[in-house]
Amino acid sequence: MTNPEQKTTGHGPGTGGGPGRGAVAFVACTEEVHAEAILEILNEAIVNSTALYDYRPRGPESMQAWFGTKRASGFPVIGAVSPAGELLGFASYGSFRAWPAYKYSVEHSVYVHKDHRGQGLGPLLMEQLIAKAIEQQYHVMIGGIDAANRGSVALHQKLGFSHAGTIRQAGFKFGRWLDLAFYQRVLPTPREPVDG
Q1: What are the Cα distances from residue 141, in Å, to 79, 104, 132, 190?
Q2: Tens digit of pLDDT for each residue in 11-42?
Q3: Cα separation of 8 and 23, whole Å?
Q4: N or C: lower Cβ tally within 10 Å for the chain?
Q5: Which helix H or strand E contains 161, and what residues bound it?
Q6: SS3 for 66?
Q7: Quick one: CA dihedral 159, 165, 167, 168, positive or negative?
Q8: Where in the chain are the domains?
């Protein structure tokens, strides 16, 4: 698979512990190429985890609107792709809140395919996403994480995110109340923020 924004790294699956061969490539995901694989990853998380506060798997038609929003706002969707072209995981961000003064803040998400977790892909995807947020002149990255998701909390702390607060019993799934923890990282950009 080729892509003008493709980057490769010698870290990750096939380079020190994970299955597979060769380097992982980081690509700008497109609806045409990656929608089905992204939907599979999202739906697995919906059905089997509290990573998404959603109840029912999404249909293929949902990806058109999802990608449309990303394109319209210039938000990245960064994929980690194996040498064989398999999407191993992805990371993206979107608006934190709709009001204009939040324009320098984004809320992000990162998901790794169930068969490729524990191989270091999460941090690699997040590093790519943080670099993109700086390039796009954002100031704060925010992750809303189920407070019981220790793996995601540890990932964010390792990458310099700090706990900004927790909303107790914000969600209800799998027969129990869920606490939503917010983690943030302040970026050095923009150099000259402006009102309006």
Answers
A1: 18, 9, 11, 13
A2: 444 433 443 446 899 999 999 999 999 999 99
A3: 6
A4: C
A5: none
A6: helix
A7: positive
A8: 7-186
165 or 20: whose pLDDT is higher? Answer: 165
- pLDDT digit string, tens, across residues 103-154: 999 999 999 999 999 999 999 999 999 999 999 999 999 999 999 999 999 9
Q: Specify the fold of 7-186.
A: Aminopeptidase (3.40.630)
Residue type, 135: E
Task: Determine which helix (DSSP H) or strand (DSSP E) holds 125, and give its type and residue range.
Answer: helix 121-135
Please give the pLDDT value at position 98.
93
Which residues have C-beta within 8 Å of that of residue 33, sequence separation ≥ 6? Answer: 1
Distance between CA atoms of residues 126 and 38, nearest Å: 16
Closest residue by Cα to residue 146 from 128, 122, 124, 172: 172
From the centroid of its chain, how far is CA 49?
16
- Distance in angstroms (rounded) separating the CA atoms of residues 155 and 176: 24
